[in-house]
């Protein structure tokens, strides 16, 4: 990831380099009384990639939260959550991302600069947060755990020492100097900004009641590379949204709506945080979270096999998808911020070969050539219905602890357009991992999680799966306005 960062720096982007010289790049790669937070997620079509817990002045759920319901909508690149920040409130939509910790928002109505984000220039989702317009906004200081976390110990020097903090104040955590600017790296992009505190507002179970979370810590980002929209991090680190709300020792669940609901403002995917997300779920299939010593804040699971079709044929999975090497590379990352499932070579090509052997439809090679997908078929469709049921091979993932996830119809082969001349082109929405990438050996993406309730039981360190009609689940949570 570091090589990606420095590869795009040029003279005209000199401010990124200067910032990196004194900040550290932070890489993505029990209460007895039930308390919960329920949010709605909107869908957006996207393409790819041991620290102390603290709530740091944020009230615990028992003091401030019962159940919260936020309608969220889906757009082009992922599942969106709306953040109500500041005084008076400013509404900023950001991606819900289980593959990172930091929550950040674009800052500055005119000054926010996104490099290589031309596809989003006219996107109405790009709303910026203005700290100067909020009476409750202030910059975080060097004396907080959040500042220590964003500037990780990878650096050979302490950024707060450079900022002027004495050793005694650093040891006591009392330095009041502003936390230096940070650089945060993702698989395909970089953001730079400052840690900011402000009031976050969420809705209780009664939509007419608003609860305030004072001093919520987030990144106020002024410059990015290929990251046009903010992110709400749901990882296991202290900066994540569940951690700051006090739910990190409980859990959360989501049920992603299918792509057919994309851009539908009347329905959103349910995201539940707290006891309600994990209570009465012991009957489901759970696979253990794998512990990676190098990347402890990410959610890893172990893949044992993949079954294709209704036969006993199984594709053997490399051990790297359930084990880590001495550098912490390996395992399968479950990530809502990556759209499609990614598998390593040669395993990925072997899976394609098995799928081809079980399908009799003609290949749509011209679609394969102009898209990022490697296996597309022309499927007969005399009724001109995109959602027509087909007999393309089914795919089932088998994770550790005998946990199986049979991908629902449409979660593997997906129609790339409207029917034409009695056929519709469907492509396998899997991709191969880039060669030479450090980090996870594979990624279980959000597209393959559609119409599946995914439960993150953080207390018992396990992840559960349950096939579900997410549109019906949305309606049961009151997130369907139709």
UniProtKB/TrEMBL annotation:
Keywords: Aspartyl protease, Glycoprotein, Hydrolase, Protease. Pfam families: TAXi_C, TAXi_N. GO terms for biological process: proteolysis. GO terms for cellular component: extracellular region. Belongs to the peptidase A1 family. Residues 79-466 form the Peptidase A1 domain. This is Peptidase A1 domain-containing protein. One of its GO terms (molecular function) is aspartic-type endopeptidase activity. It comes from Heracleum sosnowskyi.
